[in-house]
Design brief:
Length: about 290
Amino acid sequence: MNDAALHILALVSGYPDAERRSRFLAMLQGFADDTGKGNEPVFALGGFVASVEQWMGFADAWDAKIKEEPSIGYFKASEAAAFRGEILRFDPAQRDKKVADLISLINAYAQFFVGCAIVREDWARVFRGQMAKTMDSPFFFAYMRLMTSSLQRLFSFGPAIDKVEWIFDEEVQTIYREALNWWLAQKAEPPLYLSRRMGNHPIMRNDKEVMPLQAADLMAWVTGKLTSPTQNPIAWDWAEQLSVPGTVDVWREENPAQFFERAKRRGAGTPSYETGAQRSARLKELLGPRR
């Protein structure tokens, strides 16, 4: 077993071997622009779900594939699409083969995908200055939607399915704490058929070490590009190569508006705006100081 597989086992350390290998892990990545937090018209989050056992095999295979000549140190979809970073010295045929080989590994090991795409302008029309600071950004909402989607899809597999745990790429600490706050609330609330499938709380890990997060990066990039007003033929090509089943939620103006109205009907009354300082104080009270 090489280091790539050991990084997967480390995510579920403390469980008996048989239990930890059967646990499901949802590997999630966000895409906004090349830096992960820029001005793309669509914010997208995407990833894949599989058991620890499957991810271990995937990690070893992915590690070996990226080291094949011409080798790369890691895979990042935006770099591959634009021939930058690790893909800078590749010609088109070499790039296409490397990506196709990596997608074939995703098809072989991942159980299903989840995705969420949110049009920024539509989101801003509904939420900007209206509710908590969290709602001024689609990041938190997309994480919330994908955690729910992965639980619902696991439920559809039947009662024998084990719990799922979420692994995020290292993200802005505040967004992670908001997602953790949501997870804690959902864990303590019905419906039981979902909460009983929630494993440990979400964690963040480095995508250079946890190989499945590099696959999630591809899913997030494809999701974002396919829902953008500007068509991207490379994204279509890569999407057509993916054979893993799954679902993508695309949120346009009517969807946030409906969500906003449902929130008020559930007792939010007239939603009050929360500043960044107020949000920080709330999270500190709930979860303690940032570490």
